[in-house]
Each structure stands twice: as C-alpha cells, then as structure tokens.
From TrEMBL:
Molecular function terms, GO-annotated: actin filament binding; phosphatidylinositol-4,5-bisphosphate binding
Domain Gelsolin-like residues, every copy: 513-592, 636-706, 757-820, 1051-1121, 1157-1213
Keywords: Actin-binding, Leucine-rich repeat, Repeat
SUPFAM superfamilies: Actin depolymerizing proteins (SSF55753), L domain-like (SSF52058)
Pfam family of the protein (one): LRR_14
Protein name (database record): Putative actin regulatory gelsolin/villin family
Keyword Repeat: yes
C-alpha cells in the first residue's frame, strides 16, 4: 500500500457501517497519530484492535452497535480520551477494567444497552464525569459511594433498569440538569431528594408507578424545570404541584387515567408541547387558548366530541400539530382551521360527518389524516380552488380561461366561470332585513344603470368578434424576450466581500473558483484571475476594488470569463467601482500594492479550459450485475469473468464505445428494460451517442462479447453458467463522507442521511465528498470547492480505498459536479429520474421512488406553454400572392445547376429530369441569385447592372425520405468542398428533406414538382415482375407554391372530387418498351388552375408517341382500364373541406417544460416524431397521435391540452363540434391519413 503521507494530518474519521469483523480492522489506523475523534459504529468488531493503542491524541471514541464483550487492552492507554460511547454492545461487568475510570480527561461515558447487572467497579473514581448513561441494563442498586464523588454530573440516565430506590446521596448532584428514571419500579420510593436538584431542567419518570399518593409534592420547587415526562403512570388527575411550574415547555401526561383538566393550565404560559393521549378526557378547559406559545397538542385515544374542544382554539397562532385520532368528533370548530401555523392535522378514526369550509384556508397544511371516518363528506371547494388538474397532472392549470390568459387573450363571455362571485353572508342577512323597501331615486337609478349595462353589452358583443383574434395575435420575437434572472450565488458565496482583506478567484471551466490565501500573489501564465480588495471607509462602510488579471498564455474562454465574472462580482456586491483589467507584465502600481510581497509567475496553466479538447478518451472496462432496487436498479460491480454470470440476472458490460447487456434466461423483464434504458442514457449523456449497444441473450452471444469477457479469440468457454449468487443478497449500504480541511488537519465525517434515503441534494457545491460503495469509491468535486480540499480528497480516497479489504475489480473514480456518470447517479434515489428531468410514470409510481410529489408541486411553479393552441390558423396564401412571389424569386435567380447522386458521385442532372424527384435519391441544386442594388436617394429608375460581389450562392441538398445518409456525406466531402473553393465563405448550404422544402426552393419549379417512388433508372415492377401501375395525386397545402404531384398507392378509395390525379396504365410488350395509356382525372370540385396544371404535367411526364393521354372529368371513367388499374371501383370522398381546417400541433417536453407548437400548414407524414405526441385537427375530429417513444407524462399533458383545444374551438366554431380520438403509430385511420399528402408506410430508422 502506497503511503500518501496524509494520514498523520487526519483529525477525525467516521468508519460507521464498514465491516471490520474477523481481523479486517485497517492497519493503517495506527498511522493516524494526530486523530482526535473516531467513529467505529456498526463495524462488527468484537474486540478493541491493537492499532487503537497508537492513537495517543484520541479524545472522542464511539463504538456503538458492535459485538464487544470486554474492554481490556488498548482503551486504558488512551490518556487523552474525553468521551467514550459504548452503547448497544454485549459488555458485562467482568469485561470492564478498573483502569478505564482512572482516565483523568474522561467526561462522557455511555454504557447503555449492554448487559450490566450492577454499577461497574471503580466508576466512582471517574470524578470528572459530566455525562453518564447507564440505561437499558439490568442494574438493581446504586452504591452509596457513587454520587459522593460524581458531583459534577450534568446528565444522568438510569432508565430501563430494575431500580427500586435511589441513594440519599443523590441530593449531592447539585449541578444535575437532566435526570431520566423512566421504566424503573420506583413505587415505594418518594423521591425526596428532588428539591435539592435546583438546576434540574429535564425530568423523565415514565412508567415509574406514580399515582396521586406517591407523587412527589415538592416538585413545584424545581423552578428551572422545562421538560417533564409522566407517561404510562396511574394519575387520575394532574397533580396540583405541576400547575406551579411556570417554565414548563414540554409536558407528557399520556397513558394515564386523567378524566379532566383544571382551568389552571393557563399557568403554563411557556408550554410548547402537551401530550394528553390515551386518557379519559371528555372536554378541554377554555383556558387552553391562553397557552399562546403552544405548538404541539396530542389528544389521541380520548372521548372528546365537538363540544369538548374550545371554540376559541383559533387563538393558538403558533399551533403546528393537532392530533385527535380515535375520539368521538363529529365536527371540529371552525377556529381550528384558522390556526395560521397549522401543518399537521390528524382526525382519523372519529365520527366526522363534514369539516368546516375554512379547511381549504389551511394553506400551510402538510398532512391531513381523515382515515376511518366512513360518514365524512368534504365541503365543496371554493370556485377559485377548483381550477387546475392537481398533482396528477403536475400542478398545471388546464382550465380554458387560465390558458387563454397565459396566451395573452381576452377571455370570452362564454368561457367566464359562472358563479365565481364571492358570497357575503353578512350582506345577505342585511338585505333580507331591509326587504324590498323603496328608496329615494331608486327607480331612476335603476333605469340609468340598466341603460349603461345595455350599451356596454352591445359594445362588448360588437367588439368581441374583432378582439378575440387580435387579442391572441402572436407577439413579435423581441417583445417576448425577457431578461433572464441571474443568480449570482451560483458563482459567489454570502461571505465574499463582507470581511476586509483580499479574495482571489481563478477561472476554471468558465466559472470562478476561490483559491486559498497561501496561493495569493502566485499567478499561472496560462490562467486568469479575479482579485477583490475589501476595505472600510472613514464612516465604516464597505468599499471594494475589483481587478481581473490576464495571463500571457491564457485561452480565450478564460479571458472572456474573467471579465464577465468581474462584472458579475461588482453587481453581486452592488459596488460602484469599475472593474480594472490587469495584464501579465504590465500591472498597475495599485494592483501590485495589494500584495505584501512581489508577485510571481508560474509557467503553464493550472486550471482546465472550458473548451472541448480533442483527445483520445481512455475507457475502463467494467461489468455490473443488475438488481432491482424499488423503482430503480442497483448496479453491483463484479469481476469481468465467465464465472460472474448468473442466469437469473442481467449484466451490464461497459467497454466504452461498446455496451453489452447480457440477459440471463431467468432474468426479469423489468430489469432488462431498465438496463437497456441505462445503456441509452450512458450513450447519450457520456458517449455523445457514439457507443453501440448490444443486447446479448444467454446461449446466443456474439463472439465480440466473449472476446471482451474471456479471451481474444471470442470462443465461448466450456461449462455451464451456474446460479451462484445468494438469493438473500443485499448490497453494501453506501457511505457518504465529506472531506473537511482546517489549519493543518483533515477530517472525514459521514454525512447524516435522513430516513436512510441517499439523495443528491445532500451534495453541496462548495464541498468535496467521497462515496464508498465497497466495490466502487467515488470522489465528487463540487464546483465551488477549493484546490487544497480537492488535493486532500484525492489522497484521502486512496488511503480509504487501500485500508479496507476490497475485491480486485474495485475502482476509484473521480466525478466533477455537473458531469456525473449514470453509474454514480444510480447510487442516489431519484437523481435524473423524476423531478429534475421528467415525470416518466404516474404520480403513484413516482411517489414510490422517494420523491414527495405533493410537496414539490406546491413549491414548483410548473411551466407549460399552450399558446399555440389559441393562435388563429395560418391564412392560406392567395393565388395572386403566390404567383407574385414565384415571379420575384425566379427573377432574382440568375442560374441553377442540378446534380444527382449516381454510383457514389454527383453527376449533372439531365435537363428533362428537372422537377422530377425520387424517394431513394439525393439531389444538389446550385443557385446563383442576383441581389438588386439599392436605389439612390432621388429614386431614379436608371438600370445599373449589379456588380459581381452582389451574386449570392445557395446550394440546396434535397434528400428523399427513403434515401440513406451516404448522399449527404458524399456531398460534404466532395461537391461542397469544390463549391467552397469556387465561391468562398459566402456559400450558403441548405439541407432539405422530402416534402419539407422551403417556399423559395419550390418556386423555382413553377408548381411542377413531381415525386416518384424508388430510383431514377429502375423500373417500378409488381412482385410478379410486371410493369407497375403508377398513380399520382396533385395537391396544394396552404399555398399554390406548395403544389406537389406525389405518387401514391393505386387504389380507387384515394380519389377525392376536390383534387386531380394522373393514372399511368402500362401495356405489356415483347421488347419491354414504355407504352400504355395515361389518364388525367379531374375531380368535379377541383379548381380550374389545377385542372389545367394536371394536363400540362401529364403531357410533360409522358411525352412519348407510344403513350396516349386522355383527360377525364369525374364520372367519365372507362370501365376497362381505369377502374381495373385501380383495383376496381370503390367509394371515395367527394369533399375536401378538411383542407380549410387541418392543423398539426407537436407536444413535447424537450425544453424542460411542456410546450405545444404548431407545424406550418405544409406539413407532411415525416413531421410525426416518434419522441413526441401530435394533435391533429381535421375540422371534425381531433386526433391524439402517440409516438413510439413518448413518455407517459407527455401523454397525460397532451390529452389535457387536446381537451382545452376542443373547448376553445367549440366557442370559436360552434357549428363544427369536434370529438377526441386516440391513434397509434402504424394504426392510423383514413380520417387521419387523408390530411397528409402522399401518405405511405412510416419511414424506418436507419439500422
């Protein structure tokens, strides 16, 4: 084991929950010669280790929850020992050496929960003891000499023993502050020594057989008593002497026989906690409401009814807990709901019928328990509280009126919630008393008010239609910009700039990082620094000087961030001074005067740049066994060996750029899916999607898997995979240490984990932590941690790793805040699974992961953007506007060269093929535009030829929906380079996909944009080898510029009277020449422009003497060729009014919150994204389309959004009511697919 030299500087270590049984105690402990405190709790040790004797400076030792029986040996040599905690062991009287109590510094001794039958011999010699705990033993007698010598005791716990009396010398404990005698048979003992204990503040006498006869009446002499526990006794009433304890703060009288309370309880003016549970109370005195500081009141298991609770209980403004379960309550006073601080209300197992309406006013209530009240009917919620969809929908208010307001719209009268006016019962009573008595001028006033109301109603009705569209008009992009709130606490700490002196930060990964005072004045030439001088002016006000120092060899990001964060520091402090730039070798005199000595320069750079550096990443191969851990998984590291495999488990083998997930034959499906999800997260977040994920099934493994696991030749080892993992296997609980650094010492305490749930919120940016998982040891560096703490943590982690016996595959991993690995995150509950990213499950399953969803939702202002649902539909472009745009863009086009990918290289496209596109091809169009020059001031119309530098070059790369990415790669490395060499940086490259073309590109083809199936020079044939029938549909989406002729499936049901079609029916010939008949079919409701266009296009496509063209109007179809080619006559739609209403919305969580965005009117099938949910409106139905990889939260929120949209359209278009339908990918109905031009099979993702 390599010695880092850091152990002598360690002042304290917490080894809790490590396994030091069977001689595993770390020998390196003997090197911690400077250690002052040591925790060995729950380490399974059975004897005091020999190494403990070397710890001469040890002052505090805790060895709780172990198997110690004897204390002989090294403990008696620890002369500096001050506190010794030995609770929960097996120590007997014979195992305690007398020498232990002769340690002069010993002040705290805890021997509770052991097997002591009497006071240990020699204990009276420990004269300096201040704290003594002997509880939970079997002691039946206290020797007289004990309290003669231990007169300095402040805390004495003798509970849970067999004591029947205490020695008279107990009165000598004049300094005693806490005395615990609970659970001892003290029935005969009169406690006459109590009046002598004048400093007593805490007295526990639970279960000591107290009754009114043997109760110590002198208790009222203890004026300092603040806490008294008398539970589990036989008191029929509260002893009178208790009412004379004015400083009492906590009183426990539960489990007695008390039937009533005196009104004298008002004397307990400082009382904060009162426990009266499990008594026989039927009523509480009215003076209870005078206990103004009362915070917790427990009344469970009594006989209280409605009249038994004071009506004025609402005066208890500090009351936080009211617990009255298992009583006879049918109602509770309304005043109870007006206790402003109430957080917990327990009314379970009563006879409640209803609750006061004011229950909804308890805004701070964290817990309301109403179980076992079968007749309970909750009062109706106030109208303003009925909005929203509750926790189930993540606290987002989906009410139409709320969403309209968020979208900036005026809420129409039809949406206003009826009956939202608040009711005033007092005003109602006054009205009833007055009756219908006429008042002077009442009639005239009524007429005037009625006239004003009529005029207002007419005005509102007239303006509503105009305002409802205008009010939800989209804001300009710059109008919606908001200045982002900057939280300077992310960069600087509260104490920065508050104490006179010098503070210096270095720039690392774009952020300021404070350096230690020892490094002041030493600057690296490759780094940048921020220097703050804080001082006091003449009137005692803080003033600041801020400098940022630039090294000669610093990178650009460090220079920029030094300047930016210097300004941030000025804003954070509210300083009025300017930030001063200082450069290496040219520092100002004022800057140099900040340091006591000359500044020095160090070659190189200490901190890392924020820019990505291109370097080979070294991946360490690891293998993990996947176990279920609640709703998540536990990853147990195992040796990379054939013997590690077990058919009942899933194994995760990570080699870096290849991730193997091995499925045992008996492994659970849930573990398989979660392991796959883990692999995808690792690939996305850590490998930049460059890793390959291979799923290996037992018995069907690829040789690559065996090559990594066993041998280089990739052969499977002989032998059977055995079930060797213990069925009762439980992973080692991880231990989280915080590295603490002081002046010349180190400490390694464990972080207290509340409820034994490790959550990532325990990690604070200014600290460094070590997470010990036995097989994995992680060192986590916070962003604000200092350089020295980081260096110390690295050395401490090495020592901690080596001093504990670990498997050979164990590893130390360093983790930076913000770049944590998925393996590290999996050690914490709910990290990167619920709140921080996305709710991927129902609210019920989220709660199982440990997240308090209700508490989170109350604090969280859940953001959602549904404004797109209330925007008006994009208006269709008129034919005149489209023609004008087309002419303008083509006028600017000087030349267009066309290329097509052929045999892995781009060749020129034949002129006759211009405008013809194939779904499996890639095309390139080089367009040169003439940019018109600006007119002179006088506006002369003199034509001046544009200069050469006003030529704009744009390259359009068009990719068919079934074409692979090889075309794009070929273009990038060949043609694009040539174009850049010709036209320089002015060249603009635009990549476009099929049916997602921009309008300017479409305009160059003058509405003759034809998309064919397949490839250019490959004939389309049927499965039996015959020439295939080709069927095309002409359609415009939102504009004449978006006119396309797309080949579709030859089926008569695809006809529509509003469109035009081309049907090519081939003839069979011996020489396979292209001959046949072409039908141009014109629907009865088609526009004249499209009817003319379809004829022109048909003539251009099939310009062949062997092909005849026939123009058919709807109803003139010949029976032979036309209907036969389309598979027979079938009913088809005769109307396309859906084109006037069709809208497509995308629902997504990709921005970190739920948003709805509308696709343009020229949408296509490929706009349906697998990761999202789409809302499609065709004017009659609204469809909710679910992508294959959408999350459950998106489904729930999109469903609510669709409902809101339908409500909104019901108001805007009452004559077109819509119904909501659900549709899944690959199961779309005809009503859905008709909204998409050229619908076909969904595009398959590339393998």
């Amino acid at each position: 084991m390599a010695n880092t030299g850091v152990l002598p500087f360690v002042r304290g270590v917490d080894f809790t929950k490590n396994d030091f049984s069977d001689g595993k105690f770390p020998a390196a402990v003997r090197l911690m010669t400077g250690v002052q405190w040591l925790k060995l709790d729950k380490t399974n040790i059975s004897e005091v280790a020999e190494e403990m004797g070397k710890l001469a400076k040890l002052e505090h030792l805790s060895v709780k929850n172990n198997d110690l029986e004897k204390l002989f040996g090294e403990l008696t040599e620890l002369n500096s020992l001050r506190s010794l905690n030995l609770r929960h062991n097996r120590i007997k009287n014979s195992g305690i050496p007398v020498e232990l109590f002769q340690l002069e510094e010993l002040t705290t001794l805890d021997l509770s929960h052991n097997k002591l039958k009497e006071i240990p011999d020699g204990l009276e010699k420990a004269k300096n003891l201040l704290v003594l705990n002997l509880s939970h033993n079997q002691i039946d007698c206290i020797p007289t000499a004990l309290f003669i010598h231990l007169t300095d005791l402040l805390f004495l716990d003798l509970s849970h023993n067999n004591l029947e009396t205490l020695p008279p010398q107990t009165r000598r404990l004049a300094n005693l502050q806490t005395l615990i005698l609970s659970d001892n048979p003290l029935e005969v003992f009169q406690l006459r020594q109590l009046p002598s204990l004048q400093n007593l503040e805490v007295l526990h006498m639970r279960n000591t057989q107290r009754n009114l006869q043997n109760f110590p009446t002198s208790l009222d002499s203890l004026g300092n008593l603040a806490e008294l526990d008398l539970a589990q006794n036989s008191l029929a009433r509260v002893p009178d002497c208790l009412y004379k304890l004015p400083n009492l703060r906590r009183l426990n009288l539960s489990e007695n026989e008390i039937t009533e309370l005196s009104t004298s309880i008002e004397c307990w003016m400082k009382l904060e906690t009162l426990n009266l549970s499990r008594n026989q109370l039927t009523a509480l005195p009215g003076t209870l409401v005078k206990l103004s500081f009362l915070r917790r009141l427990y009344l469970n298991d009594n006989q209280l009814d409605f009249d038994g609770i004071p009506s004025g209980i609402g005066k208890l403004s500090y009351l936080e807990v009211f617990s009255a379960s298992n009583n006879l309550l049918e109602m509770i006073p309304e005043g109870l709901c007006r206790c402003g601080s109430l957080k917990k209300l327990n009314l379970s197992s009563n006879k409640l019928i209803t609750l006061p309406d004011a229950i909804y006013l308890c805004s701070d209530l964290d817990q309301l328990d109403l179980r076992n009240n079968p007749d309970l009917i909750m009062p109706p919620k106030p109208m303003e509280m009925q909005k929203g969809a509750g926790i189930e929908f993540y606290n987002i208010d989906f009410s139409l009126q709320h969403q309209l307001r968020l979208a900036g719209a005026t809420v129409p009268p039809a949406v206003q919630t009826a009956g939202t006016t608040s009711k005033d019962p007092i005003a109602r009573k006054l009205r009833l008393r007055r009756g219908a008595r006429p008042e002077v001028g009442q009639a005239d006033s009524a007429k005037v008010l009625k006239g004003m109301k009529d005029i207002a109603d007419e005005k509102n009705a007239k303006n509503w239609e105009e305002e409802r569209v205008e009010s939800i008009k989209a804001k300009r992009w710059d109008e919606s910009l908001e200045k982002p709130p900057l939280d300077y606490s992310e960069f600087f700490e509260d104490e920065d700039g508050q104490i006179p002196g010098i503070t210096i930060w270095e720039i690392e990964n774009f952020l300021p990082n404070k350096i230690e005072e020892i490094a002041h004045g030493k600057f690296y030439e490759g780094d940048c620094y921020i220097v703050l001088k804080t001082c006091l002016d003449d009137v005692g006000q803080l003033t600041w000087e801020i400098y940022f120092w630039i090294g000669n060899h610093a990178s650009l990001d460090k220079k920029a961030c030094a300047a930016i964060h210097a300004v941030n520091l000025r804003n954070y402090l509210g300083a009025r001074s300017r930030t001063v730039r200082e450069e290496q070798g040219d520092e100002s005199e004022e800057f140099l005067a900040l340091f006591d000595t000359d500044i020095s320069y160090i070659e190189g750079g200490r901190t890392s740049t924020g820019f990505f550096t291109i370097e080979d990443v070294i991946y360490i191969t690891r293998m993990y066994r996947v176990h279920a851990a609640g709703a998540s998984i536990h990853l147990e590291p195992v040796a990379i060996a054939f013997e590690s495999l077990d058919p009942r488990y899933v194994f995760f083998l990570d080699t870096g750029l290849k991730i193997f997930i091995w499925h045992g034959r008996k492994s659970k499906n849930t573990l398989k899916s979660k392991a796959r999800l883990l692999g995808e997260k690792v690939n996305k977040n850590e490998r930049k999607n460059r890793a390959e994920i291979h799923v290996e099934l037992q018995g069907e493994e690829n040789p690559e898997f065996w090559k990594v696991l066993v041998s280089e030749d990739g052969t499977r080892p002989a032998g059977k995979i055995l079930e060797h993992v213990d069925e009762n296997f439980t992973p080692v609980l991880p231990r989280l240490y915080q590295v603490q650094l002081g002046m010349g010492y180190l400490e390694l305490p464990q972080v207290e984990i509340p409820d034994q749930k490790m959550v990532h919120t325990l990690l604070q940016s200014k600290n460094v932590y070590i997470l010990d998982c036995y097989g994995d040891l992680f060192v986590w560096f916070g962003k604000k941690s200092t350089r020295l703490v980081r260096a110390a943590a690295i050395k401490l982690s090495q020592e901690l790793f080596n001093m504990i016996l670990r498997p050979k595959h164990a590893l130390v991993t360093r983790v930076q805040e913000g770049t944590e690995t998925q393996i590290y995150k999996s050690k914490f509950i709910g990290w990167d699974e619920i709140i921080a990213v996305d709710f991927t499950r129902t609210a019920q399953s989220v709660a199982k992961t440990g997240a308090d969803l209700t508490k989170w939702a109350k604090k969280q202002d859940t953001k959602a953007d549904l404004a797109a649902l209330f925007m008006p539909r994009q208006a269709a472009m008129t034919l005149t506007e489209a023609t004008q745009l087309e002419e303008d863009w083509n006028y600017d086009l000087e030349a267009m060269e066309s290329f097509v990918l052929e045999n892995k290289k781009f060749v020129r496209l034949p002129e006759e093929e211009l405008g013809h596109f194939y779904t499996e091809e890639c095309y390139v169009f080089l367009c040169r535009y003439c940019v018109p020059g600006e007119e002179d001031e006088e506006g002369t119309t003199e034509i001046v030829p544009p200069p050469e530098d006003e030529i704009q070059c744009v390259v359009y790369f068009w990719q068919g929906r079934n074409a692979g990415n090889m075309g794009w790669l070929t273009f990038t490395f060949t043609l694009q380079k040539k174009f850049k060499a010709m036209f320089g940086e002015e060249l603009e490259v635009v990549r476009i996909h099929q049916q997602q073309e921009n309008l300017k590109f479409m305009a160059h083809f003058k509405r003759k944009f034809i998309i064919h199936h397949g490839r250019r020079k490959v004939k389309q044939v049927t499965p039996d080898g015959k020439v295939a029938v080709r069927f095309y549909c002409l359609r415009s989406n939102g504009s004449a510029l978006c006119t396309r002729l797309i080949q579709i499936k030859p089926d008569a049901s695809y006809l529509n009277s509003a469109f035009c079609y081309i049907l090519y029916v081939p003839f069979e010939t011996e020489d396979n020449s292209e001959s046949g008949i072409v039908y141009a079919w014109i629907g009865s409701k088609a526009s004249p422009e499209e009817a003319k266009l379809i004829q022109d296009v048909a003539e251009d496509i099939f310009n062949n003497p062997w092909v005849s063209l026939q123009v058919l109007n709807e109803g003139e179809e010949p029976e032979n060729f036309f209907w036969v080619a389309l598979g027979g006559r079938k009913p088809f739609e005769t109307d396309a009014t859906f084109m006037e209403y069709t809208r497509l919305f995308r629902c997504s969580n990709e921005k970190g919150y739920f948003t709805v965005a509308e696709k343009c009117s020229d949408f296509c099938q490929d706009d349906l994204a697998d990761d999202d949910i789409m809302i499609l409106d065709n004017g009659e139905q609204v469809f909710l389309w679910l992508g294959a990889r959408c999350s459950e939260v998106e489904i729930k929120l999109a469903y609510k959004s669709a409902q809101v949209y339908i409500q909104h359209m019901r108001i805007k278009q009452p004559d077109r009511p819509r119904k909501l339908f659900l549709t899944l990918k690959n199961k779309e109905s005809k009503r859905f697919t008709k909204c998409f031009h050229g619908w076909s099979e969904h595009k398959k993702p590339p393998e």
